[in-house]
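Is this the right way to post structure tokens for a design question? Let me know if I should format differently. Anyway, here goes:
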């Protein structure tokens, strides 16, 4: 269904932005990273507690006792059947143990990664450790100097390799130095690394108190024990979660593109799309600058040249320096793009609480740039981006399905006339028709289309959304008091129509299908849950 074009001032765009803002996309406690970290820490404490008297006896609070227990319980993570599987399993346990020490002390892997060699030198310990070679048949160990930077993951793997190499089950271990005792090296370097993290007696006690409290609480409730280490874990994983979370808005957009029927790596890119390299002057030197976009649409379709160029910027907090840098680079990037694609339309994918508050100036600047054609938010993708596809006359599967829904019997000629009246070319219509038949989205019998049962529900839901977009208007504050309205983004703040009006229009316009009252309510609830519309 052809959506109306917007004609909003920057002020009106900002008002819509605020109304349909998504402040943040994901809580740290909801991420896989956080939950797996908590689970591994919990299991590590439970494993240690079996040989440390449930953390009751404070006299066991020593580096030596920790080393002995770690070496003892290592056997439960190996089975002697495959060296490399044993090494990987034990490495994961050692990593979780080191993470437990980080959690108890507040130290971080990043802060300590340059300190281990210094620690060894202070304690008069050699910086050479047994390291296995890359051979698979005969596993050869030789003394190698530690690098100047050593992460906990790196140390965990080295120590795990030493333990597995000392197991009697493996008779293919080769040493170039007969005085080797892999087990002794394991104990020495494990003690050194533990004492690097646990610097003094107080930090040892911190570890003991946390573990003892966890075991005590776990006897009452698994959830209570988990809550004890939740807050510490949040601070530990915050950085890595934030880094990985940077792609969440892009993934959401890709999910929406798949839902409307587009194909990844053909209709849209799945990673940054490079436009080309530009030679620029920087600090008096000439250098190459890669120009890329988060999305270029359409992507790789023979009959299409890229038209829509989208950059994604989601800031839940104040990322001022990064945001300003993006703003500064936007003009140069766009000028270069226009030199290759004169008809390029630039769209900003902007959202997050940061743009509501501290980065408000950057948001306004992006919207006021002459070549910013439009903007989209997480909640407005299905209106604003689909309207952009319609503007460049790129026909998407869901638009084809809507044209069928508008006919009484799915007659092919009627569908063709509807799409031609919306401006699509005969070639474009044929391209999509052939694609949808090949993918079993639609079928044709006696010159009449049928929509696949797997597609009809989704098409019907967006059909409701489009009716609201076509028939809606800006609702006054007075009108809101007199009825229940459906609001949607894409046309300014406060845009929508009465819910009863939408229900009537849906029945009138959907000639190909019958929308029952139950289906209408279910579709409406889905749109609300997806936060594509709101009911006021």
């Amino acid at each position: 269904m052809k959506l109306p074009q917007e004609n909003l001032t920057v002020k009106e765009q900002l008002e819509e932005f605020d109304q349909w803002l998504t402040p943040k996309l994901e809580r740290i406690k909801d991420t896989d990273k956080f939950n797996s970290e908590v689970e591994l820490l919990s299991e590590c404490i439970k494993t240690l507690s079996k040989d440390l008297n449930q953390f009751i006896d404070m006299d066991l609070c020593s580096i030596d006792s920790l080393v002995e227990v770690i070496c003892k319980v290592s056997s439960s993570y190996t089975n002697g059947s495959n060296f490399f599987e044993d090494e990987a399993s034990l490495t994961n346990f050692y990593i979780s143990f080191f993470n437990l020490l980080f959690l108890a002390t507040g130290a971080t892997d990043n802060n300590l990664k340059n300190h281990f060699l210094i620690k060894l030198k202070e304690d008069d310990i050699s910086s050479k450790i047994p390291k296995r070679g890359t051979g698979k048949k005969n596993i050869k160990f030789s003394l190698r100097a530690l690098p100047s930077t050593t992460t906990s993951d790196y140390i965990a793997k080295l120590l795990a390799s030493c333990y597995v190499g000392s197991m009697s089950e493996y008779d293919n271990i080769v040493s170039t130095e007969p005085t080797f005792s892999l087990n002794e090296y394991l104990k020495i370097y494990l003690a050194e690394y533990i004492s690097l993290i646990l610097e003094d007696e107080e930090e040892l006690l911190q570890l003991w108190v946390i573990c003892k409290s966890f075991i005590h609480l776990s006897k009452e409730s698994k959830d209570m024990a988990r809550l004890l280490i939740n807050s510490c874990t949040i601070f530990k994983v915050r950085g890595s979660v934030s880094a990985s979370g940077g792609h969440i808005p892009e993934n959401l957009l890709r999910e929406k593109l798949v839902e409307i029927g587009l194909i990844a790596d053909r209709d849209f890119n799945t990673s940054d799309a490079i436009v080309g390299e530009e030679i620029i002057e920087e600090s008096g030197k000439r250098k190459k600058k890669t120009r890329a976009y988060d999305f270029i649409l359409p992507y790789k379709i023979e009959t299409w040249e890229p038209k829509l160029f989208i950059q994604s910027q989601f800031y839940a907090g104040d990322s001022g320096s990064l945001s300003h840098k993006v703003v500064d680079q936007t003009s140069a990037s766009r000028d270069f793009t226009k030199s290759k694609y004169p008809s390029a339309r630039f769209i900003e994918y902007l959202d997050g609480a940061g743009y509501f508050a501290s980065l408000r100036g950057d948001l306004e600047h992006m919207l006021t740039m002459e070549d910013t054609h439009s903007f989209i938010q997480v909640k407005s993708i299905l209106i604003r981006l689909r309207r952009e596809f319609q503007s460049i006359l790129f026909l998407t599967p869901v638009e084809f399905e809507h044209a069928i829904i508008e006919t009484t019997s799915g007659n092919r000629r009627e569908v063709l006339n509807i799409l031609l009246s919306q401006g699509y070319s005969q070639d474009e219509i044929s391209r999509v028709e052939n694609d949808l038949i090949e993918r079993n989205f639609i079928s044709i019998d006696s010159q009449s289309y049928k929509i696949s049962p797997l597609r009809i529900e989704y098409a019907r839901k967006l059909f409701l959304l489009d009716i609201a977009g076509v028939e809606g208007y800006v609702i006054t504050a007075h009108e809101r008091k007199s009825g229940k309205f459906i609001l949607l983004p894409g046309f300014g703040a406060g845009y929508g129509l009465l819910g009863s009006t939408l229900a009537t229009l849906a029945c009138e316009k959907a000639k190909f299908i019958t929308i029952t009252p139950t289906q209408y309510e279910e579709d409406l609830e889905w749109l609300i849950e997806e936060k594509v519309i709101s009911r006021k």
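Format looks fine. Someone answered above. Worth noting: The chain has three domains: 28-240, 248-376, 397-535. The longest helix spans residues 222-245.
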